[in-house]
Amino acid sequence: MWGVNAGSVIYWYTNDDADTWINIPGALSDIGAGADGTVWGVNGGNQIFRYTGDQDGSNPGPSSRAAPATSG
């Protein structure tokens, strides 16, 4: 599970009792994860970003929300 707080700080839930939530570098205003594990986010400047586990990068186009589809 992924989340962002009111300060745009990104967190990833690890399901590990010792360190349940891990802070991820960067800042996003919205985040969502797809069924395939791809994570999409939008920053305060409405830029879209994608993280697939081994790489991240911006994607063209403005948006204010991130809502991955279940497929394709």
Automatic annotation (TrEMBL):
Pfam families: Tectonin (PF19193). InterPro entries: Beta-propeller_rpt_TECPR (IPR006624). It comes from the Bacteria. Residues 50-72 are annotated as: Disordered. This is Uncharacterized protein. It comes from Kitasatospora putterlickiae.
